[in-house]
Design goal:
The chain has helices at about 5-20, 25-35, 40-65, 70-90, 95-125, 130-140, 145-160, 160-180, 200-205, 210-215, 220-240, 240-250, 255-280, 285-300, 310-335, 340-370, 375-390, 390-395. It has about 400 residues and is mainly alpha-helical.
Length: about 400
């Protein structure tokens, strides 16, 4: 495949990830579901939490299956399961458990199995631009709600929430399966014509491909996993509480807070691309150190911000750092353990991620509830990021020792 044609795979991957990333638009459904069936907001929101947990656990299954199957097969299966979960949620009626089972469990499994595929095969096609290309792929996931949220809102108003689930489920499955049909690995040993890694790239890359079992026996795998988990706990805590933070600290109206949440969602997608590109230009270590440093400085002073405009700018910046972790980490894993088994190696990193993505926001919300303000939670995140600054400086490729 030529240098030009391989970019067509990127387009397919971005479309695929946007169909999965529509899950970020769940907040559009919380109000209508609560109003129609009498469920509390927290009960409805729990479906999203279940889905995110199964995303993390199913990424492990998807990564292992990729080693024995093709990207096309795994991606199609994930897309169909995600679409089926959303479609079947239309039959929830007053049964909350059915919503959890369909959208949460079945849809979450589809999300996890699908999410890992573009990351796995694109790093093989783009050894020269690993960070940027992974950033583009996962950037599509982060930006999925930009289209799905307004479409879902319009459909709910015109068709009702149940029919909206049915329509969107079919649409998600169709987009995902069509996009997945283009996905494939390059020939064994393929490299871009005329490309050789620079001395700087070679110094930050493993000299061989590691199997999953071998990677798990290195301290570097656990270090990279910890880098992702810390970044997720910090960023997702703010993302999960963005609207009430804007209302409490910025003193804005609920409508304005909703608009500001939409704006920072753009930062989620942009951060995945920008920070991944920065990691190509510098190194994965420098990119992670910079994200932690920016986050620590802003979190230490976040509670003192009262200007809505400044609060939006700072939050947008923090969310770009949060998104950046998803762009840099898969490239980090491919650099340190080789691209051959990166699907299963990065997929296993999503398992502890699933727990921290639930624990961090829950702790942040608990501290707000018990103390009456966000200050203590913000200080906790700032301290965690400050201490974690040492971690990117210590990690290095697992070479001769293994």
């Amino acid at each position: 495949m030529s240098q030009t044609n391989r970019w067509g795979l990127v387009v397919a991957a971005v479309c695929f990830q946007m169909s999965l990333g529509a899950a970020y638009a769940w907040s559009v459904f919380t109000g209508p579901l609560s109003k129609e069936y009498g469920w509390s907001i927290s009960q409805v929101a729990y479906a999203f939490t279940i889905g995110w947990f199964f995303l993390g656990t199913a990424a492990v299954v998807g990564g292992l299956w990729l080693h024995r199957s093709t990207p096309r097969m795994v991606a199609m299966t994930g897309g169909l399961l995600w679409g089926a979960g959303v479609f079947l949620a239309s039959f929830s009626g007053p049964r909350l458990w059915w919503l959890y089972l369909t959208y949460g469990v079945l849809g979450g499994i589809g999300l996890g199995m699908g999410y890992i595929v573009p990351i796995s095969f694109l790093v093989k096609w783009f050894p020269d631009r690993r960070g940027l290309i992974v950033g583009l792929a996962v950037g599509g996931f982060g930006a999925g709600s930009l289209i799905s949220a307004p479409v879902a809102h319009h459909l709910i108003e015109s068709l009702g929430v149940s029919r909206t689930f049915a329509c969107l489920g079919i649409a998600y499955a169709m987009i995902a399966t069509i996009s997945a049909s283009f996905m494939k690995n390059p020939p064994e040993g393929w490299t871009p014509e005329g490309w050789t890694p620079s001395a700087k790239q070679s110094s930050q890359r493993s000299t061989r491909d590691y199997t999953l079992a071998e990677a798990l026996r290195t301290w570097q795998w656990w270090a990279i996993c910890l880098l992702l988990c810390i970044n997720t706990m910090a960023g997702l805590s703010v993302v999960s509480q963005a609207a009430p933070i804007f209302k409490e600290l910025g003193k804005v109206t609920p409508a304005a807070a909703a608009g500001m949440v939409g704006i920072i969602s753009i930062g989620n997608g942009l951060g995945r691309v920008i920070w991944a590109w920065i990691s190509d230009m510098t190194s994965r270590k420098i990119a992670y150190f910079s994200m932690y440093l920016v986050g620590a400085l802003l979190f230490w002073n976040y509670h003192n911000i009262s200007s809505p405009v400044l609060l939006l700018i700072v939050t947008f910046t923090l969310v770009t750092c949060y998104g950046g972790g998803y762009g840099v980490t898969p490239a980090f894993a491919a650099d340190y353990f080789g691209p051959r088994h990166v699907g299963s190696i990065f997929g296993f990193m999503m398992l502890p991620w699933a727990f921290t993505s639930a624990f961090g926001p829950s702790l942040f919300a608990y501290l707000r509830q018990t103390t009456g303000s966000y200050t203590e939670g913000l200080y906790l995140i700032a301290g965690m990021l400050t201490l974690a600054l040492v971690l990117p400086t210590l990690v290095k490729p697992p070479k001769a020792a293994h």
